[in-house]
Amino acid sequence: MAGFVTALHKLEPWYDWGVIEIENLNARTEDELVSGQVRYFDLQWLGLHLSIQYGRAPRRSRAEVRNGI
Questions:
Q1: Domain segments of the chain as ranges
Q2: What was the pLDDT predicted at 17?
Q3: Average pLDDT, stretch 26-43?
């Protein structure tokens, strides 16, 4: 039984969650880059990596809106 418990502890998944900054990828120049915060959840288990990010995408810059991008 002790061997089973040891094996089970080695198979324990790794996970993490929190808030990160993302950037709007529609920018053409660095001046147009806009960033915003989203929540994320990461899970790694048995060689599988699952990452989920959810939240609002950063708004487009005024230059993008003005130029119709």
A1: 13-66
A2: 94
A3: 80
- The three-state (H, E, C) secondary structure of the chain, written as one string: CHHHHHHHHHCCCEEEEEEEEEECCCCCCHHHCCEEEEEEEEEEECCEEEEEEECCCCCCCHHHHHCCC
Q: For the CA atoms of 36, 66, 30, 41, what is the dihedral angle to 10 degrees?
A: 20
Looking at per-residue pLDDT, the higher value among 61 and 43 belongs to 43
The answer to whether 34 touches 24, Cβ cutoff 8 Å, is: yes
pLDDT tens digits, one per residue of 2-12: 778 777 777 88
